[in-house]
Write a structure and sequence with these properties.
- There is one protein chain.
- By secondary structure, this protein is mainly beta.
- The chain has one domain (about 25-135).
- The protein contains one helix and eight strands.
- A four-stranded antiparallel beta sheet has the order 1-8-7-6, with no helix packed on it.
- The model has no long low-confidence stretch (mean pLDDT about 85).
């Protein structure tokens, strides 16, 4: 909390008013990647490439008792280190930072993977798009 916000909060508490200090952090940047695409990382030097996926989620045209699973494989490179592959699980929740994958100085979260499988048809791999949120690693 900034010093000014802290002082305002203390003043409000002394006066018997509730403190409504700003506690929300800005949303982490998100990167949209088509299958096999590579883009610069929005959180640091280097690149992020969507190199693979495994998708056993419930097909979009079927009612399932379980959601299934999906994983996205990213190739991460930055200055001064060798590249590495990280596997991001799909959790079904865009805000599941407790399941984020730590790699180097950052955390990566798979927000979405589209399209979902279709029962009785195949999905063209080039149609897949992963949305990945990234933020500096938390202690």
């Amino acid at each position: 909390m900034e010093r000014r916000s802290l002082l305002l909060c203390i003043s409000a508490l002394i006066a018997g008013a509730p403190c409504h200090a700003e506690t929300q952090r800005p949303e982490p940047p998100k990167l949209e990647l088509l299958f096999q695409a590579s883009r610069p990382s929005p959180v640091g030097p280097g690149y992020v490439q969507f190199v693979g996926y495994q998708d056993t989620r419930c097909p979009s045209n079927v009612a399932c008792a379980v959601a299934g699973e999906a994983h996205v494989f990213l190739w991460l490179t930055d200055q001064g280190s060798r590249g590495r592959v990280v596997t991001l699980p799909w959790t079904g929740s865009a805000s599941a930072w407790e399941r984020a994958v730590r790699a180097g100085k950052y955390e990566y979260l798979l927000v979405s993977l589209e399209p979902r499988p279709i029962y009785g048809a195949s999905v063209d791999p080039s149609a897949y798009k992963a949305v990945v949120a990234m933020r500096p690693r938390r202690p």
